[in-house]
Amino acid sequence: MTSNDEYIGEMSSIEDIATIVRSCSKCGLSGTRTNAVPGEGSDSPSILFIGEGPGFNEDQQGLPFVGRAGQLLDELLGVVPLVRSDVYITNVVKCRPPDNRDPLPDEVRACWPYLEAQISLLKPHVIATLGRHAMNRFLPDARISDQHGRATVWRDIVVFPLYHPAAALRSTNLRQTLENDIRRLPEAVLRSLEISATAAPQTEAGASAPIDLTPAETPSGDGAGQNRLF
Ligand code: SF4
């Protein structure tokens, strides 16, 4: 464990995490970013949206989902209705991969403790993943065409995969599918609340587990610990 990881373990607020992310140099993406993008939103959100990584506009502004895909996400949240200040939005990796390539395994591994810490502090009722790559960090064997709009329990949190808004910008059908799925987010939150009301105390064990998990270790590839709700 690096001293940086030890520091992450002492973070007591979302802003603490953001501060360390902005000066982080744990992986090579620190050398090519303009700004790190820790995330933004409520510090007690019902829903935590997680994309794979920042794009050009996000890198320029240091904020998540601020390009055309972000505008579409805002528009679709409005049908629930929700606004950004109601939720929290972040990414698996906090710095933009050059040319928008997929993040490398060692980059995801280096950044994962920040996401772990954010999940532990934010305690969302629902994690809404945006796109196939973010979904597969939690549900490694799932196919987005099968899993979108379906709620699955990961640890003690409901994971609700969504298509990426950027994909929805390229397809009218996907845009409608994404809107239909987002309209079901309140149902996912309700199911999560029902689970919380009946949860045994031991479900807290996952949340307090060491936060230096790698993506390969975090989701159970055999489906253990995952229970589809709808
Ligand atoms: S991607 Fe994550 S681990 Fe890598 S430099 Fe940025 S904040 Fe640090």
Describe the structure.
By secondary structure, the protein is an alpha/beta fold. The chain has a single domain, classed as 3-Layer(aba) Sandwich (Uracil-DNA Glycosylase, subunit E). 42% of the residues lie in helices and 10% in strands. It has helices spanning 3-9, 14-22, 56-61, 68-77, 105-122, 132-138, 144-147, 165-169, 172-183, 185-198, 204-207, and strands at residues 40-41, 47-51, 88-91, 126-129, 152-154, 157-159, 226-228. Strands 1-3-2-4-6-5-7 form a seven-stranded mixed sheet, with helices on both faces. The longest helix is centred in the middle third of the chain and has 18 residues, at 105-122. It is globular and about 40 Å long. The N and C termini lie far apart (39 Å). The model is unreliable at 201-225 (pLDDT under 50). The protein binds iron/sulfur cluster.
